[in-house]
Write a structure and sequence with these properties.
TIM Barrel, alpha/beta, 351 residues, two-stranded antiparallel ribbon
């Protein structure tokens, strides 16, 4: 069975780069425009979540292959000034594993003033750095937290670090890195604690979003039959809370929202497998090595780092980026026969 290249059952137009319209934006063949930039800055992580990384961690990327602080700042500036990006989020691996994270944030804040800068983190160690990151220009954080049950957390992450995570979340709140969004991947072993996690988030003033597990695990154990889907989650949450669907306020936002007990609090569900929203995707991604990745499930990457270090100017780099996004697939195709996961796992791609 051939590998699925176009997702969601949508045909991929037979268009070449020459067919790309002469516009500055990161437009693709389906008319989508990428405005949300995810910048992976490191492959290392302090946890080993089963749906993201192998137990031994990802292979180390040699230091000389990682983008430097100045290179990250330059590419972020090009994305905003030349390509129309209006939101930037730093990811990993775990961004807190980079010692120069505050310098990266400060450099980007100075280069693209007024552009929202956020970070996806597991919050291990955030307690010590939250105030410095806020002072550097970071606006808010998304925290990956799948369970507040210490045993379940340790089983899923292969590390007993829940107290550090909770301390990091509270430190982020004190530092003003709000609104704090909690991302929880739906797993069979944590479904029974989903209502407890929502209760905790309501008490702490955090916004919770559950995410269907996608086939991006390094161990390649994902199976559609065992995946916890949005419907099962809603049933579990409905045993304790009254949920009223409100949908998506922004079509490009991945989470569908439900009012909890009449509101104003909400809970979101990113049903990335069972309720495909690829048609509204507005994201572009940079890997830690400086390659443009047009989508999570495409193994096609365009190397901006090599071009940059060979002396390419801003216009050339912007052109390479536009070409990369023009080739973006229609969608992930997870539910189509013949689907194969990408070579890189989630930890290597960046959230």
């Amino acid at each position: 069975m051939p590998r699925v290249r176009g997702g969601g059952g949508q045909p991929t137009p037979a268009l070449s780069r020459a067919d790309r319209p002469s516009v500055a934006a990161l437009v693709d063949r389906f008319g989508r425009v990428a405005k949300d930039l995810r910048v992976s800055i490191i492959e290392k992580c302090s946890l080993r979540c089963t749906y993201c990384m192998p137990a031994e961690g990802l292979p180390n990327i040699p230091q000389h292959r990682l983008l430097t602080t100045d290179e990250i700042v330059r590419l972020v500036r090009i994305a905003v000034e030349d390509l129309g990006v209006n939101e930037v989020r730093f990811t990993g691996g775990e961004p807190l594993m980079r010692r120069d994270l505050e310098d990266i944030v400060a450099g980007c804040a100075q280069a693209v003033p007024g552009i929202p800068l956020s970070m996806t983190t597991n919050a291990v160690g955030l307690e010590r750095r939250a105030r410095r990151l806020a002072a550097a220009g970071l606006g808010r954080v998304n925290v990956s937290l799948d369970s507040i049950d210490r045993a379940h957390f340790a089983e899923l992450t292969r590390r007993d670090r829940l107290p550090s995570v909770l301390a990091g979340i509270r430190a982020a709140a004190r530092a003003g890195l709000a609104p704090i969004k909690i991302n929880a991947v739906l797993m069979p072993e944590t479904l029974s604690g989903a209502a407890d996690l929502l209760e905790w988030c309501l008490t702490e003033g955090c916004l919770l979003r559950f995410i269907e597990q996608m086939p991006l695990d390094a161990d390649r154990r994902w199976a559609r039959a065992s995946m916890v889907d949005a419907e099962r989650l809603l049933e579990a949450l409905g045993e304790r809370f009254d949920l009223t669907e409100v949908g998506r306020e922004d079509p490009s936002a991945p989470a569908e929202e439900w009012l909890v007990d009449g509101g104003p609090a909400t809970v979101g569900i990113v049903a990335s497998v069972t309720r495909n929203f690829c048609a509204d995707c507005d994201r572009t991604r940079l890997t830690a090595e400086g390659t443009v990745r047009s989508g999570l499930f495409s193994d096609e990457e365009v190397d901006l780092r090599a071009a940059m270090r060979s002396g390419a100017g801003d216009e050339k780099l912007a052109g390479l980026w536009r070409d990369a996004m023009w080739s973006k697939w229609a969608g992930h195709g997870i539910n189509l026969e013949g689907f194969e996961p990408p070579n890189r796992s989630m930890g290597a791609i960046g959230g």
